[in-house]
Specification:
alpha/beta, Rossmann fold, 9 helices, 44% helix, 21% strand, binds S-adenosylmethionine
Length: 210
């Protein structure tokens, strides 16, 4: 389900269908198996950000079946370090990365991102799309890895609009955490952030200083 209205979402999908055969198949597989992959208008925006930032290294937290990692790798020559802890997802992601012929460009790290992030190299773009209640921890661990002038991108920050609804917030601890994270990010003195109501809500944060 999307944060923006369904007919706008459908309009955007019709306006810009996925041209790449494998990505279209992976999107279908994701939907059929109820894997929460990124929405197409959001990954298209990330694609544009990649063109602007021209990164040499990208870190992704939350691989799932590899849909977004493969999309990122098809956008740039940057090395993609992506992290996943669910064994079933890891198996699927490996299979799909192989199908895409991108084993050399996409490095899949198996395990908990909280342990793996500190072992990764510096990056110009860090995409956070794993457990929503842990976004603050992921940000704190990944902050030293992002180069000044680089960007963080966080998906699902509006979570179907629920973070803006006091009644729903009161019933769901994960949403309260996400809401607190959004406030933390908005006030972060070393990051300049835009919240965008596209897909399920993206936050894009530019790193101003170490
Ligand atoms: C929303 S899905 C990622 C979707 C993917 N980025 C895409 O758009 O194709 C989130 C994934 O993060 C993984 N995940 C959640 N918490 C994690 C953690 N602490 N370490 C590693 N992976 C984690 C989940 O197993 C899940 O597969």
């Amino acid at each position: 389900m999307s944060y923006i209205s369904e007919n706008v979402e459908e309009y955007l999908s019709r306006l810009m269908p996925i041209e790449d055969e494998l990505l279209a198949k992976l999107q279908q597989e994701g939907i059929e198996n109820e894997v929460p992959i990124i929405q197409v208008p959001s990954i298209r925006l990330i694609q544009t950000m990649i063109k602007l930032v021209n990164p040499s290294v990208i870190i992704e937290v939350g691989t799932a079946i590899g849909f977004s990692a493969i999309w990122l790798a098809k956008t740039t020559n940057a090395v993609i370090h992506t992290i996943e802890r669910d064994p079933l997802m890891i198996e699927k992601a490996k299979e799909n990365i192989k199908r895409a012929g991108l084993e050399k460009q996409i490095i899949l790290h198996e395990g908990d991102a909280r342990e793996i992030i500190p072992t990764l190299p510096k990056a110009e773009l860090i995409f956070i799309d794993a457990a929503k209640g842990k976004y603050k921890t992921f940000l704190e661990l990944a902050f030293p890895l992002l180069k000044v002038g680089g960007i963080f991108i966080f998906d699902n920050v509006l979570f179907r609009g629920f973070v803006a609804d006091e009644n729903i917030l009161a019933t769901k601890p994960m949403l309260r955490k996400l809401n607190r994270f959004n406030h933390f990010l908005a006030a972060h003195p070393k990051l300049e952030t835009s919240f965008i109501s596209i897909g399920d809500g993206l936050a894009i944060s530019y790193k101003l200083e170490e």
